[in-house]
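Chapter review: from sequence to fold.
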Amino acid sequence: MIVASRTTGREGKVYGIDLTEEMVVRAKENCKATGVTNVEIVQIDNEEIPFQDTMFDVVISNGVINLSPNKLYLFQEIHRVLKPGGRFQFADIVTENKLPSELTGSLEAWTQ
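The token string follows.
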């Protein structure tokens, strides 16, 4: 979020969402420590993105989509909040088929 806040400039606004209070607190602390003031961080508890339709130019997901049990709905929400012509970038693990238990139960498999 710090890089995004610098990219948007003083006039821009960056919003972050996370599922855990711990990560929200950590993100807020990091923004404060680096002097970032154009960031708002929100905690959510499901796939509903708490922002208006067509609000964002860019949506970035870093390792969150794979945690969602309802990926189709999450992708619909991302599409909903993106402006027409907006960009979506993600670094994640997305599968269409059920994975074998030796992979789903392996922390090493999910982090490589």
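Two observations follow directly from the output. The chain has five helices and four strands. The mean pLDDT is 88.
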